[in-house]
Amino acid sequence: MAAAAMPLEELERWLQARVDRHSVATSIPTLDGYVAAIVTGPVSMSPLDWICPLLAIDADAFNHGGTPEFAAISAVALHHNEISQTLSTTPRQFAPMHRREVNGDIDPRPWCRGFYVAMRLRLSAWAPLLDASNVNHGLLLPVLLHCRDDQGRPLLGPPRSGRETEDFLR
User: Fold this and answer.
1) What is the pTM of this model?
2) Which of 5, 6, 13, 86 could form a disulfide with 74 if both were Cys (CB 3.0 to 4.6 A apart)?
3) What is the DSSP letter of 158?
4) Which residue range(s) make up the domain with 83?
5) Does any domain span residue 9?
């Protein structure tokens, strides 16, 4: 698939040009978070089950090499393999692909949103980590903190007011 894959910069332009198709990924940070959740998730999934909604493509696109859709699929597959390789061999080198705001601050929201949308594909499998009484629940808190529910409310409830919360959310 390497020869057919489009570079990530081109993939982002392709995604933005298709925003009317309502793909999960509208940016590389969102795509990166989504793919990271697929790689680290508690269950394996068929690529069709997660790549099709990610890119808003039909499963038939997997059968037609030489198309922009196939080049996007290839880019996602390569990115999946890169994340998997990094997390398997040098996990401390894994770095989420966040955007920086004008003032230099990192904006984790698109990455976290992508991660959470991928979780929702098999939410029941993630349920143990969503249980606040599970000792490993804290592993997801940095992600869930930046996510919103279907009504646009903070997934973990409203944040506490104050400077400590503001500093933590940066």
Assistant:
1) 0.90
2) 5
3) P
4) 2-121
5) yes
Contact 93, 33 (CB under 8 A): no
Which residue in this structure is represented by tokens 């996990």?
A: 91
Q: Are 108 and 97 in contact (CB under 8 A)?
A: no
Please name which of 34, 36, 38 lies closest in space to residue 23, comparing C-alpha atoms.
34
- Is 89 inside a domain boundary? yes
Q: How many domains does the chain have?
A: 1
Residue 7 lies in a domain: yes
Quickly count: other Cβ atoms within 10 Å of residue 68's Cβ.
15
Phi first, then psi: give them for residue 153, nearest 5 degrees: -85, 150
What is the distance between the alpha carbons of residues 23 and 161, in angstroms, rounded to a whole number?
Answer: 34
58 within a domain of the structure (yes/no) = yes
List, in sequence order, every beta strand (DSSP E) within the chain: 99-100, 106-107
